[in-house]
Design brief:
Radius of gyration: 30 Å
Order of helices and strands: EEEEEEEEEEEEEEEEEEEEHH
Distance between the termini: 33 Å
CATH topology of the largest domain: Jelly Rolls
Helix content: under 10%
Shape: globular
Largest sheet: 6 strands, antiparallel
Structural class: mainly beta
Number of helices: 2
Number of domains: 3
CATH class of the largest domain: Mainly Beta
CATH architecture of the largest domain: Sandwich
Number of strands: 20
Length: 454
């Protein structure tokens, strides 16, 4: 995937730029293009990994966010999210009681961003460690308007990097703010990494068509031998991949693939999802394309669950190849937070060829038979019953009110001193109930757990 990093530096009397490529695997490539040096500071970036610098994010006050590297043997992040090494960088807020007392705050503020024409997706990875790590709030402050909170989390995640996605709409120049609030723990921290500003709405949990990027899916660096590659149409001549993707069905569409010739026998390539919540049954859907020069050996493509650093295979391709993209639905379940992953494996007898996937979707809380299994996934299972109960209660109240009115009329009709001439004729009354502020009374559906958010 091509990215466009921007670096701001002070120019001496002369300048020489040096690009260095290092080899850490048997195959692969690194390419650069369109190198430009211009005067002035860099424009704001749509992606910040904090590897080169802080991307013009600033933090001021007695307690500040700091750009750090991995710190093994402490309660701080051992590795960053970008490189998954101890040399990678991230931004850290130390929320320990001795540094940031309970309820006190520290802010990390982005440079001024221009308004977007449509809803944009903010994605970032975060880590919150400690028994009571405090609270991480995300605010948007628009020009001439009060800042508004877009997202919040106050539950410890341990030393695991977790992904957050937030849809944002702005009409004026704006700034993004990460606020860390002290929680009173003896030792705790909040960290963020890989902040991305997308140009479309956020994809659903676990979903990706790979047209723009990898969404929330990622290659891993410390469990496998090679990365999955992101490609459009026919792969470069040295590698092999499908001539068309599944999403668009043409050579401009993108997919993820592994050239098996780049692997030695027994080597693997992993592609992992974001962390997914516990579920009693959710449907993972995707399309796969396998083309191997010899008969496909057992397990060339595997789907697995990853829980507490342990993997368990839930599906694998067996002795079959596909000339076209093939669909597959798998129901997954877990009592704890988990990840799902795709693994390409080089087997004995496998020579030239490729394994590819595209159009991954994850239907949280609904299994592959369309049955809702988790009420928390959308709250839809309880909402109709609640609405029906509310309607019944309202009907009972209306009936009771009608009864009271009729009883009062009847009492007045039969009270002493009431003559036949003063009595209203017996019959139906046209009683109309109206809300004081509205023409009709609407019963709004209760918000689902998913919609309510943290």
């Amino acid at each position: 995937m091509l990215t466009c990093p921007r670096l701001t530096f002070n120019l001496p009397d002369w300048l020489q730029l040096i690009f260095e490529a290092t080899q850490n695997s048997s195959t692969g490539d690194i390419a650069i293009d369109d190198v430009i040096v211009v005067g002035g500071t860099c424009e704001t970036q749509d992606f910040c990994s904090f590897e080169a610098n802080s991307c013009q994010f600033t933090s001021t006050g007695p307690n500040i966010w700091e750009r750090q590297i991995g710190d093994p043997g402490t309660n701080r992040p051992v590795i960053d999210h970008t490189t998954e090494t101890t040399e990678g960088h991230y931004m850290l807020a130390d929320t320990s009681q001795g540094v940031l007392p309970r309820s006190e705050t520290m802010l990390l503020v982005s440079p001024i961003q221009e308004p977007r024409d449509a809803v944009m997706c903010l994605q970032f990875w975060f880590q919150m460690n400690g028994e009571t790590p405090g609270t991480l709030n995300v605010y948007v402050e628009e020009e001439k308007q009060e800042k508004r909170r877009e997202w919040s989390m106050n539950v410890g995640q341990g030393l695991t990097w977790s992904l957050s996605k937030v849809n944002i709409k702005t009409t004026h120049n704006w700034k993004l703010m990460f606020e860390a609030v002290g929680g009173g723990a003896a030792e705790s921290h909040i960290a963020i990494d890989d902040v991305t500003f997308g140009h479309t709405e956020c994809p659903r949990m676990g979903a990706c068509d790979f047209e723009q990027d990898l969404c929330s899916w990622k290659n891993v660096l410390n469990q496998d031998s090679k990365d999955w590659d992101w490609n459009s149409g026919r792969a470069p001549s040295y590698f092999r991949g499908p001539e068309v993707d599944h999403t668009l069905g043409n050579s401009q569409g993108h997919y993820m693939f592994v050239d098996t010739e780049a692997l030695r026998v027994g080597e693997t390539a992993w592609l992992l999802s974001e962390h997914l919540p516990p579920t009693k049954g959710s449907c993972l859907k995707f399309y796969y394309h396998i083309n191997i020069s010899k008969q496909l050996m057992h397990g060339t493509l595997k789907v697995f669950q990853y829980i507490n650093d342990q993997e368990s295979v839930i599906w694998e391709a067996k002795n079959s190849q596909s000339e076209e993209w093939q669909p597959l639905n798998i129901t997954v379940d877990s009592l704890t937070e988990f990840q799902v992953g795709f693994k390409a494996v080089k087997s004995e007898g496998t020579e030239r060829g490729y394994v590819a996937i595209d159009d991954v979707a994850y239907n949280a809380g609904v299994n592959c038979h369309g049955v809702r299994t988790d009420q928390a996934a959308g709250g839809g299972g309880q909402t109709p019953g609640i609405i029906a109960a509310v309607i019944i209660v309202l009907a009972v109240l209306v009936a009771a009110a009608v009864g009271v009115i009729y009883w009062r009329k009847n009492k007045r009709h039969n009270s002493p001193g009431t003559t036949s001439e003063s009595r209203a004729p017996f019959g139906f009354d046209n009683v109309f109930y109206r809300n004081q502020n509205k023409e009709t009374v609407n019963v709004e559906p209760l918000p689902s757990v998913e919609a309510a958010g943290p």
